[in-house]
Amino acid sequence: MRHIIHGLCAMCLGTTAAWADGPTVTMQAVAGSIGGVPMMIIEGEGLDKKHGFTGTFEYLPSDGLFQNFLIGNSDIAMDNDLLGVAIARAEGFDVSAFYPVGNLYLGIVVPGDSDATTPEDLKGHKVGHFGADSGTTAFIRLIVQQMYGFDVLEEYDMAQVGPAALVQLLAQGEVDAIFDFEGFVSEAMVATDGHYLLQAHEAFSKQNDGFAPWITNMVAHEDWMQENPALVYAVRDAYDDAIAMLEDSHYEILRKPYIAEALGISDPAVLDQMIENGNTYGYFTNDWSEEKRTAALDFLGELAEDGSVIQEVPDGTLVTLEDTIGPRP
């Protein structure tokens, strides 16, 4: 249908410019999230036009974000994790993750005057998080179990508030540590002269031969990819360009007003910290090698065996474009 519409438009002199801009792809990410930065760069630097499509970029609240994609309001979701994809496929949605986006830019943060040197030192202490069913707490819980052999939900005195409120909770001394993600991690570090007690991507990678699951992936409906093979390759290329710009600039591109404003960062010290954390840990990746995909499936398989988050790993949860839609047109 999309090709028919564009064919008709091409015959209309009044829409010549729209045709020249290429077909439209609607993309979505969480508003204000570091995970949305590559999409901000695609939009801000015109990488969509460079790769032959016109992006419609939607920055949405996290509540209902995945549902908005599942019902077909966007073509590509940039901010979804593999657990959500596995659950959606188990429920009958033909969605697949076809590329990585975000590393685990999250962890346990303690204030600068904390005596804790390992997660074990927080046993019996009050720790803030934003929900046992959140990806952040689930990943930290899993990593601590692997590395230190105890369950944070049993050994810590957990206090639950929203991810933004955790920063103030730590700054006011109401908790001894928080589980949070960027850029709240950077805000908490600046507010408390704090630091990571455990950085999830770094810790998980050390324990698992260099592999850590991705906090976000590029996800699309299988039928949309089949109908738009050139477009999905073009979006992947635009993403590759975006993260190359991040790395080539050593994350200084985050200072551009269109990114800093979209992230809601007005404090230069927080922006400095976010850039430093990006250079130290790396926020994004495009390593979708067979080795990493196999490790990811093994990781999901372990979670399915545990049964507390997912019960199965449906076929097609992770795919490559080459296997799903064939070589680049």
TrEMBL record:
Keywords attached to this entry: Plasmid, Signal
SUPFAM superfamilies with a match to the protein in the record: Periplasmic binding protein-like II
Signal keyword on record: yes
Signal peptide start-end: 1-20
Protein's UniProt keywords contain Signal: yes
Domain (SsuA/THI5-like): residue spans on this chain: 83-244
InterPro entries: SsuA/THI5
Name by which UniProt lists this protein: ABC transporter substrate-binding protein
The organism of origin for this protein: Falsirhodobacter algicola
